[in-house]
Amino acid sequence: MDLSVIITCYNREYFVAEAIESAIGEPGAEVIVVDDGSTDGSWDVIQEFSPKVRCVRTPNRGPSAARNFGTSLATRRFIRFLDSDDRIPKGSSRYHVEIASDLPPQSIAVGDAITFGSHKACGTRYGYSGIIPPGVIPRATLIRNIMSPVLPCFPARALREFGGFDERFRIAEDHELALRLSREGYSFVRVPVFVCEIREHSGSRLSRRWGAARYAQLCDVYEHIWMEFSKCANPLSSDERRSLGRLIWVSGREASRDGFPDRARELFDLASSVAGKDAWEAHLFVRLLYKLVKAERAERISELVKSVMPNFA
How far apart are CA 70 and CA 237, in angstroms? Predict the structure, then answer.
């Protein structure tokens, strides 16, 4: 099979073995595991799979750098990424690669995923399932809905030609890559096959528990995305600007609810510069407040209302 599976790991000693076993279970796939400077027992677990898989260890530089390093080692036509706490459904990679091979040039096959584990929401679909039918993903949809790196079957040449993941970013780097490839003429095509099982667990995933730094990084990524689209030969339509503005606005609301008003203000200002009032993504009552007071103040008022009226949307 003309596929390299790249697993990146940071402190996942209790889950990484299952991820590797699922990749090994895809006959013919090249499996590369990059330990991003784990401080627990992950590297000891990973080494047990040598020489069936290529095991490498690097200083901790974040998921973007780890995935890019794995890409530099890959030798196959297509590349799939797998997080070290997730797994590949048996037999799905061959089907994924076959579909990707049959697509027109500059098309990227994007599969579906499903959650598993002990969480009550497990078994739910993950990705673009339920958002759009199989087929080309419209750019407005691509902008509004994060493209997880575990869903596409990437042509290796596309990752290498356009720089892979931007190593400046440790959050939303997957979304930035997808939108960059879109600007370079690649289309993402949803295919009806489950290509990943996403583990639900209480441990923090890469982007959780960052505090204010999370929102500062999101603002940097979204500003970068907006500036790059502004320079693009194929500029955003009004619908696409609305999608980007609302994506940013929702992050501003989250920052406000988490108690980071300065970060919220930055995100609201950026969303407004992208889409004006079309960026407003909120309950009607809150939208009315936006007309009267600054967005971050409107959010504080909304939270006070919800504290006395829990069923308030």
Answer: 36
The answer, as to whether pTM is greater than 0.70, is yes
Q: E strand or H helix at 227, and its extent?
A: helix 212-230
* Omega before residue 51 within 30° of 0, cis: yes
Rounded CA separation 83/20 (Å): 10
Residue 208: the pLDDT is 47
- Selection from 303, 275, 299 nearest residue 289 by Cα: 299
SS3 of 233-251: CCCCCHHHHHHHHHHHHHH
- Domains along the sequence of the chain with CATH: 3-200 (3.90.550.10), 212-308 (no CATH)
> CA 233, 239, 244 angle in degrees (round to 5)?
80
DSSP state of 184: T
Cα 87 to the chain's mean position, in Å?
16
CB atoms within 10 A of CB 212: 13
pLDDT value of position 288: 86
Output phi, psi for 289, to 5 deg: -60, -35
Residue 206 clears pLDDT 50, i.e. is over it: no
**Tens-digit pLDDT profile for residues 132-153:** 999 999 999 999 998 999 999 9
Cα separations (Å) of 196 from 92, 93, 111, 115? 8, 9, 8, 8
Q: Is the CB of residue 167 less than 8 Å from the CB of residue 67? A: no
**Confidence band of 310 (pLDDT split at 50, 70, 90):** low
Non-local (6+) Cβ contacts of 91 within 8 A are 26
User: DSSP E strands: which ranges in the chain?
Assistant: 3-9, 30-36, 54-58, 78-83, 107-117, 125-126, 135-136, 152-155, 187-200
φ, ψ for residue 250, nearest 5 deg: -60, -40
